Amino acid sequence: MSEKQLWSGRFAEGPSQMTLSFTSSLNVDVKLAWYDIAGSIVHARMLGAQGIVSEEEAQSMVDGLKQLLDDLEVGKMDISHDLEDIHTNVEASLTARIGDAGKRLHTARSRNDQVSTDFRMFVRDAVLETVGLLVEVQGILIERAEGSVNDMMPGFTHMQHAQPVSLGFHLMAHVFRLQRDTERFLDAYKRLNQCPLGAGALAGTGHPIDREATSAGLGFDRPTDNAMDTVSDRDFALEFAYACAQTMIHLSSMGEELVLWTSPEFGFAEMSDAFATGSSIMPQKKNPDVAELIRGRSSIAVGNLVQLMTLMKGLPLSYNRDMQEDKASLMTSYETLTSCLYMIGPMYRSLRFDREAMSKACAKGFLNATDLADHLVQKSMPFRQAHEVVGTAVQYCVKNGKTLESLSVEELKMFSELLDQSSLDHIDLEACLDRRSSLGGTAPEQVKAQISSATERMEAFREECFKEIARLNDVWSAMRR
Known about the structure:
Distance between the termini: 27 Å
CATH architecture of the largest domain: Up-down Bundle
């Protein structure tokens, strides 16, 4: 294999080994090898179809590239670390295999549009895998919510007891967060799925290429519009990195809750042994390490987003070598997110909830105070005044070790003559839960409606994802024929 760089002709001397090592991207972009060979096959076919190279040369390139693809998939493709990137390796390997015809492969393209094409195909697959995993996690949460519609627990604001909710309602809140994340990935896919190939270094090419053909051959919706914008654009990477970071923030929140809920202070749930570890010194410990690591690894995705945004800030058009640093952080965010999604679904599926502990916790913190104020409002008292009346009643309860529902009618009347036996019936905790029947509320019938709506959306996401995967599989089958 030739060890010359693609750009070596301009230089009287070769670069130093230090420079080659410093500028090499091979350790990262080797993950683009499959996409680079696939893009090269489609590009070679287009060159032959357009008469830019002979049909014999085009077929020789296609045959050689298919063999390289086969070798890559079984781990037999030779990759030289003396060459600076995977793109140079593919071309050098092809030339070593088929001779001078391989040197014609780079006709009418630059590494700028080549890299962008490969990278977009990688991110495209990453989006589809991520969406598939998000859908799986949603399904698990919905399944747990269906069995918990009537299981009461405290709802919190500021980590203080606020109002009674159901466990099913709480779990559905996470489902809708993850559904927004899914929508973000799918929406980004629309802008991502445009083909850069043919943009050249920055200004297009004078060869009579067919960008529509290469775009279709690689499964893109259409070619990009402006060559200079194309080679400069990393919006698709930023959008993907943002979607990863936002999703990891949601997973971090879920992990934090499990850390709290499985603690002795809460006792709402017990982690399965499969997702916990012990202590090297304290034999009684059962640590929620998986949940903690998911919480911790959210920092990776957030940091990578900031790195990418800082990388792109202020770069002049068009391509700059700074942009070589776009892939490692994005790939790390993708790998971090998917590994966390693989773990968090089964962890929630195996979680053992202590419904009695959650119910008992509802007796603390005056979760029915708002309902008592609303009861006074229904008796024509202005809400601000009702708020003050109930606040005074809560003070009384705190001083005397009582709950609102344990007060006698006589005690209630100390605070307002409008309070009576019906007030006590009104603030029964289960009644408080059932009463919140406004759209999106925690009443059982509303949670069931949320489950139905979320399930329908989840299935739509699944269908869209699987349909696109099947379409791309057809594209790749056609490419290999």
